[in-house]
Amino acid sequence: MAAPKKNGMQTVYFEKPPVIIASASIVGYLEGEGPLGKTFDQVVNDTYYGEKTWEKAEQRMMLETMQKALEKAGLQVKDIDYMLAGDLLNQIITANFTARVLGIPFLGLYGACSTMYEGMALGAMLIEGGFAEKVLVGSSSHYSTAERQYRYPTEMGNQRPMTAQWTVTGAGAAVLAREGSGPVITHATIGKVVDLGQGDAQNMGAAMAPAAADTITCHLKDTARQPDYYDLIITGDLGSYGKKLAEQLVTQDGYDISDRYTDCGILIYSAAQDVHAGGSGCGCSAVVTCGYLMESLKTGKYKRLLGIGTGALLSPCSVQQGETVPGIGHAVVIEMR
Amino acid sequence: MQFFWAFVIGGALCVIGQLLMDLTSYKFTPAHVLVTFVSAGAIISAIGLYQPLVNLAGAGATVPLTGFGHLLAQGALNGVKQHGLLGVFSGGVTAAAAGITAAVVFGYLAALTFRPRG
Amino acid sequence: MVNINYGVTKMPDNSMPLIKQKQRYMEMVKESTPKPRVLRNVFWAFVVGGLICLVGQFILSFFLARGLSFNEAGAATSTTLVFLAAFLTGIGLYDEVSRFGGAGGIVPITGFANSMVAPALEYRAEGLVFGVGARLFTIAGPVLVWGIVTAWIAGLLYYFFR
């Protein structure tokens, strides 16, 4: 028997859609300089953010973003039932250490760069299920911490291929609540891990595109909707080459999304910023969603949007052992009612 | 004249490295280039073909990492001449000792002195 | 809300076996991936690598003129270049050299020095033993292993067959 609140294969719908009552974002210098710079709450110019290490800087960013989101919602730590957060560092230390400070019951998430959307989907389920009134969701990434964990130390000379993406420095957080005003989450489509054999860790967009396309197609089939139901379909961090591939794959499945589809990784930087294929990292979809997309929903630029957080589920170890890069995509429908 | 050849031969060796990176699979990283160069240099040197290049191009042949391989191989061969079998073990690193020590010491000092910018 | 059961979704085509899907997708990726700009990269690798060797040649000539033997002057040149590369890495300029010059910045001994200093610098926060001490050899370790083993084999062959 199908679960009562499930719609089709992978989609759940919310009878009383949880509300995103507040969101906050803090970004680094490069992101602040980018085209979306004005939609973020704060721009931090120092890569260390006054801390001793980049890891501590990332933690401070996530903590302050969480606090800012609470402040905007007019809430205190004790009002929150659960905190759902994750990041890219080994054993998700940024999220763990942020939760250590906040002292909210904490569920750590790892969905690579899809973490923000994984968190929003789960948070909405917790609220719909009656297990929570208010949930705090967040994720972060930092160029320098991710770069040295996944690739090379930043001061090491090497040439990045055109398909390489730039890890976003930034953190995004959102407060979901059962009651309140703001955009609502009506559906969530939980993605499957898809791997079509792409192995180059410098071309993550191509590794994640099949998972994103799978989730988009599945969502449209599950809800029996056409792409034109949405004003905007936006993936997390496929970058320019991955976006093209995802579009092709969805087209092969019989849906034309080309006139309303874009990617957070493409929006966040301008071509002049020399970041090659675009932005990536947990922070990418988090800050674009919590900053630009929330603002666009509030100003009425978009009414209904389908966001797909995309993650590349690789580790330095799996890459060195010659494994290909599996991808995942979680979709969340956000509407302004 | 040696200045001209230093530029040309040194540049040409780097071109080989660039082609190795651009035309092979993504699995061939800069680290693989360095390892390939040092081993190739040692082999070419051992069969006697690297010394002529050094005579022609000077630093153009010694500065690229093939020159480091050359140094190690020539050290090992000279070690054999002077100390026999023991020289096989001691010769190579002895010849390259200055470069290795410099890299270790300056690397250590730089790590203590500077803070990466990111 | 209606429940629609349309069977199992598979990517990108319901009827296609996974291996076929992978083949087809890898072709799509190949088509969409931009080729590296080889000519441009090769040109700058030549110029940057050539210039570093030219600087090396000036230093070498200087030491030779001071009366050092070729081997001594060579060692002094390497030491000087390694120092310069360590310094440039420390102030954050050497990664720009390689970003621009590609193999031109990686293949010379300055690139080797950069590959030692860069990780040591960044892992300073992990302490002087596991941070700086171990990470100095992230790239240098493999290079030394391969160089020393190759030279050792060459010496051994020479010992038996000279």
Describe it for me?
- The complex is a heterotrimer of chains A (337), B (118) and C (162).
- By secondary structure, chain A is of the alpha/beta class.
- Chain A has helices at 29-33, 54-73, 93-102, 115-128, 143-150, 204-223, 239-252, 264-267, 282-299, 316-320; strands at residues 6-7, 11-13, 19-28, 42-44, 82-87, 106-108, 134-141, 166-167, 170-177, 184-189, 232-235, 261-263, 279-280, 304-312, 327-335.
- Chain A folds into 2 domains: 6-177, Peroxisomal Thiolase, Chain A, domain 1, CATH 3.40.47; 184-335, Stage V sporulation protein AD (Peroxisomal Thiolase, Chain A, domain 1, 3-Layer(aba) Sandwich), CATH 3.40.47.
- Chain A is built from 10 helices and 15 strands.
- The longest helix of chain A is centred in the first third of the chain and has 20 residues, at 54-73.
- The radius of gyration of chain A is 18 Å and the shape is globular.
- Chain B is mainly α.
- Chain B has one domain (2-113).
- In chain B, helix 2 (30-46) runs parallel beside helix 5 (65-83).
- The mean pLDDT of chain B is 95.
- Chain C is mainly alpha-helical and 162 residues long.
- Helix content of chain C is 76%, strand content 0%.
- Chain C is built from 8 helices and no strands.
- Chain C has helices spanning 18-32, 38-65, 70-90, 94-101, 103-106, 109-122, 128-135, 137-161.
- Chain C starts with 17 loop residues before the first helix and ends with a helix.
- At the B-C interface, helix 1, helix 2, helix 4, helix 5 and helix 6 of B face helix 2, helix 3, helix 5, helix 6 and helix 8 of C.
